[in-house]
């Protein structure tokens, strides 16, 4: 196994590095930030916690983005200056640099504001749809599972549901296929509670850095090791009007990134809402 590169050592980048290290399923994590002293300090702090958290992952730091080339997976996080996500023109500039430097690794956008970067990377830089994705919808999905578990006086671990579309305002929950304890969730929750959970989505977005980091770590591990689990991620789809249409969809992940996009089981109303969300620009 090679290493995982995290571009940016802000609050999100540091949290992703800590989440990957503490889960101890990757061997090497490299924090990359022009503010090398900050990146080195965070890497050292996380490394020094290894006897307590009991992990063997090695953490290093670098100042040049060229240090990400050759990674198994590259995570786009945030700048240490102001904890600003690598989005907009700055995010696209970093991607162009990586491509010119010869990057061939899949890229995971860990932030909640990087959907546009994914679309432009595919439409303008001609990146393969499979090579770049965003993990933030999986963090939102985890929050909804936890709330659904509370609503049925149980555990979110036993709840299965899928979030698709474009959070926060155009997110669509696939309630038709949602389950709890192996049974349809609708048999455990009355319609007004389900509607109430849907109504809470705007308030749950964007997820905080620790929730985003936990989601990104799981997605990175699925790419590196493979996984039968399906993750709701931002991906460029063929459902929209052009190559830059990006929305949350269930995906299967592997060493090259997105192996397959799965169409969720939706009611007619939910499917219409999803199609409308993916048709919108921006």
> What sequence of helices (H) and strands (E) makes up the elements?
EHEHHEEHEHEHEEEEEHHHEEEH
Determine Rg (CA atoms, Å): 18 Å
Give the distance, in angstroms, between the N- and C-terminal Cα atoms: 37 Å
How many discrete domains?
2
Overall shape: it is: globular
CATH level-four homologous superfamily name of the largest domain: Lactate dehydrogenase/glycoside hydrolase, family 4, C-terminal
Q: In terms of per-residue confidence, which ranges show pLDDT below 50 for 5 or more consecutive residues?
A: none
- Biggest sheet: strand arrangement: 3-2-1-4-5-6
- The overall pLDDT, averaged over residues, is 94
Q: Main β-sheet: number of strands, strand sense, barrel status?
A: 6 strands, parallel
Instruction: Give the class-level CATH name of the largest domain.
Output: Alpha Beta
**How much helicity do the residues have?**
25-40%
Report the strand count: 14
Give the second-level CATH assignment, the architecture of the largest domain.
Alpha-Beta Complex
- Classification by helices and strands: alpha/beta
Tell me the number of helical segments per DSSP (H or I, 4 or more residues long). 10
**Strand coverage percent:** 15-25%
| CATH domain topology of the largest domain | L-2-Hydroxyisocaproate Dehydrogenase, Chain A, domain 2
């Amino acid at each position: 196994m090679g290493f995982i590169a995290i571009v940016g050592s802000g609050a999100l980048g540091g949290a992703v590095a800590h989440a990957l290290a503490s889960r101890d399923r990757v061997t090497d994590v490299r924090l990359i930030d022009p503010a090398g002293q900050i990146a080195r300090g965070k890497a050292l702090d996380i490394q020094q916690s290894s006897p307590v958290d009991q992990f063997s992952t090695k953490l290093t730091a670098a100042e040049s983005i060229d240090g990400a080339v050759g990674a198994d997976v590259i995570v786009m996080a945030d700048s240490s200056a102001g904890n600003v996500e690598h989005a907009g023109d700055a995010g696209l500039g970093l991607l162009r640099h990586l491509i010119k430097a010869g990057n061939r690794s899949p890229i995971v956008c860990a932030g909640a504001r990087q959907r546009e970067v994914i679309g432009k990377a595919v439409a303008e830089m001609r990146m393969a749809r499979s090579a770049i994705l965003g993990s933030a919808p999986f963090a939102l999905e985890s929050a909804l599972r936890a709330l659904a578990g509370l609503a049925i006086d149980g555990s979110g671990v036993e709840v299965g549901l899928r979030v698709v579309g474009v959070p926060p305002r155009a997110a669509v929950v696939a309630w038709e296929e949602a389950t709890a304890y192996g049974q349809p969730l609708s048999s455990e929750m009355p319609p007004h509670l389900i509607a109430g959970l849907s109504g809470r989505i705007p308030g749950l977005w964007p997820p905080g850095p620790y929730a985003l980091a936990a989601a990104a770590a799981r997605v990175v591990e699925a790419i590196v090791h493979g996984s039968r689990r399906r993750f709701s991620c931002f991906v460029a789809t063929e459902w929209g009007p052009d190559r830059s249409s990006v929305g949350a969809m269930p995906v299967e992940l592997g060493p090259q990134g997105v192996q397959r996009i799965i169409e969720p089981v939706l009611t007619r109303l939910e499917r219409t809402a999803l199609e409308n969300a993916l048709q919108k620009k921006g």
